[in-house]
Model the fold of this input.
Amino acid sequence: MVESAREILFIAHRVPYPPDRGDKIRSYHELRHLAKIAPVHLAALGDDARDLTHGAALGSLTASHCVRPRAKSRARAAAEGLLRSEPLSVTLFRDAVLHDYVRRVLATRPIGAIFVFSGNMAAYVPARLPEGVRFVMDFCDADSRKFAAYGEQGRGPMGWINRREGRLLGAMEIAVSHRADASLFVSAAEAAVFADMGGQADRLAVIGNGVDMIHFDPARAHASPARLASVPGPKIVFTGQMDYRPNIEAVTDFATQTLPLIRAAYPSAHFLIVGRNPDDAVQALAKLPGVIVTGEVADTRDWLAAAAVVVAPLKIARGVQNKVLEAMAMARPVVASAAAAEGIDAQAGRDLLVAADAEEEARAIIGLLSDPLRAAALGQAGREQVEARYGWDAALAPLTRLVTGHDG
Done:
């Protein structure tokens, strides 16, 4: 370990275990990397009861940990945020017990660095840090721009709330970047957006996402579950957390606009929406011809392996989409929106296809369904690109220097 007398405090808005959704995949691998450098103390929130049951796994990675249920309602968080003139996404993640844990760790342990995952948790970092303690902020992406985009699209009270959130959260993100020794972003494009917003440009660093190439290996996929094997025709697959607004909007548009165009050419084609916690709007899509909503599955690799095409038709997407990298690692042909492909180091037309609207999506997918050799070549090229560019060890190599202040 580097400087064994110095320890690390890791603060995250979601417990980084298990690595089964985009943000948790990144934070889990960062936690593993930092645990090789020095003892780590973890402060995190849990979304549900299951998130409070991973003590043994977290104990193997940390010197101590405190995981608190995120019990505050959105209504209460909104009221607190309006009263305090704070971003609602900050008040939503405020927890008094977690604050006490952070203060206790800083007071009693030889902390050399605080690593914060997600901008809404920066409020846990004291205004004044002990001498020599580094503060590294992993924004991942400029989250405030997402709310600003919602605000531009919306009207009425929600439009106002999202515009307010974008404005206040953006101001907070910029202020945090001026405090932090380093602010991390998942892609150069996100870092550039943040610099243009007024972030501390000379302290920005890019730490890209990675993929576990051993786990996401098409040769390691299991036999198809009975539910999957019973689906006839070519399978078009989307994976993601299905209570997340950009995912909800993406699958809704695809199911209602793109899929009918595909089924006109391939009547037996099915669109499989694979992911936990499907929103009511997502569940309602299962009533449409050719749409299947799975909810949580035991292993997304099985569903990816069975896909004729994997789609990522997100209209709003920040940073690097793990769902795209995982599908490419599984050697599946991917059709993505420009927003979903933006942060990925891949060549459109060689490693994946990029489509601008429903008509382009349908033409691209129909073309792949009608030319299996081309689809297989696209999938193989995608896997080779991910293997060359997105291993986690390579992606996180700069993290040691950023957290410790030296190469170690």
